[in-house]
């Protein structure tokens, strides 16, 4: 099993439109698919699930859709917090959270605090998240440390850089799942996905169920991960080519 799965939950709007429903209904159904995925990942011993809920670019959607999504996040958090706590989920929101409505920020703070000492799956919800922004902020923090004299530029290495990212402390995703057939990374976890296996499915996110997740995991298990070397990590088997 992968230790960390990341998901780009694409296709909510198309799912709704194909059924003659407003796009918003697709987002509502998307929440159900996310709950199912979280529960299955937790049951199957996957240590972390990171989901792309709202990108820094999503603000350019029509105002009513943005408002609907913000209200949906609030409602879902309010409704699900008790069960997240009970199921030992550790929830974190990754992104520039200061730009979110203040009620949502309060709920995020409460949820983060209440679940921080849990010992189950790490559930990272990327909200107002952009990979390039995250990298720039990490560079800024390192530069500030150097300016203050707390760090020498010479000592900046991959570990020092990773520890300034929003995902600090989390292992990098082993598997990236993107639904609805698009083959893009869309500014998601640009640093962390360096060696992730990418799985794209035509299934639209609201239809992503146990069978779809099983297919993604079986596909992942069939991959030979060499991390740039010749041998799969953790085996001594020699391969003929890379
Ligand atoms: C992409 O589909 C999906 C989103 C922008 C929103 C995803 C959000 C959720 C499923 C809710 C998560 C909520 C919490 C609180 C964790 P799209 O609208 O881009 O679909 P399209 O490509 O078909 O238009």
Give a description of the structure.
This protein is of the alpha/beta class and about 240 residues long. The chain has a single domain (about 5-130, about 175-220), classed as 3-Layer(aba) Sandwich (Undecaprenyl pyrophosphate synthetase), CATH 3.40.1180. The chain is about 40% helix and about 15% strand. It is built from 7 helices and 6 strands, in the order βααβαβαβααββα. The protein has helices at about 10-20, 25-45, 65-85, 100-115, 130-150, 160, 210-220; strands spanning about 5-10, 50-55, 90-95, 120-130, 175-180, 195-200. Strands 3-4-2-1-5-6 form a 6-stranded parallel β-sheet, sandwiched between helices. Helix 1 (about 10-20) crosses helix 2 (about 25-45), helix 2 runs parallel beside helix 3 (about 65-85) and helix 3 (about 65-85) packs parallel to helix 4. The radius of gyration is 19 Å and the shape is globular. The structure holds farnesyl diphosphate. Farnesyl diphosphate (FPP) binds near residues 11 and 77.
Describe, in short, the structure shown:
With 242 residues, the protein is an alpha/beta fold. Helix content is 42%, strand content 14%.
Instruction: Label the overall shape.
Output: globular
Percent range for β-strand residues? 5-15%
Described by strand count, sense and barrel closure, the largest sheet is: 6 strands, parallel
Q: Helix amount, in percent?
A: 40-55%
Heterogens: farnesyl diphosphate
Low-confidence stretches: 238-242
Helix and strand succession? EHHEHEHEHHEEH
- What is the CATH level 1 assignment? Alpha Beta
| Annotated CATH homologous superfamily | Decaprenyl diphosphate synthase-like
Number of domains: 1
Number of helices: 7
Structural class based on helices, strands and sheet pairing: alpha/beta
Cα-to-Cα separation, first versus last residue: 23 Å
Strand order of the largest sheet: 3-4-2-1-5-6
